[in-house]
Design goal:
Arc Repressor Mutant, subunit A; 3-stranded antiparallel β-sheet; disordered C terminus; 5 strands; single chain; two-stranded antiparallel ribbon; alpha+beta; 45% helix; globular
Length: 93
């Protein structure tokens, strides 16, 4: 069982595994639908939640939306406190 499966609902874990498994890569929503086997509404809902939490960034090129992991939010090691998925982690000093 992956960490994403343990922490998230099935639809969320599929999207999180792809986006945060390759954080330097941007994904088209249609591509995420194909990779995860989820429908359009599910992908848009879960991406919206991740975007609202600041965990992903998006870019629009015409009518195509691309999303990518937000490295400043999800993986920043420079912060004394890190927040991931709504959970605050404190670094021991």
């Amino acid at each position: 069982m992956s960490l994403a499966n343990a922490l998230f609902a099935p639809a969320q874990s599929k999207i999180v595994e792809w986006i945060f498994g390759m954080p330097a890569r941007a994904f088209h929503l249609n591509e995420l639908m194909r990779l995860t086997g989820l429908g359009s509404a599910s992908v848009q809902r879960e991406i919206g939640r991740l975007f609202d939490a600041g965990l992903v960034t998006d870019e629009r090129i015409g009518n195509v939306r691309r999303v990518q992991a937000n490295p400043g939010r999800a993986t920043s090691a420079r912060r004394p406190d890190r927040v991931c998925c709504g959970v605050r982690f404190h670094r021991k000093t």
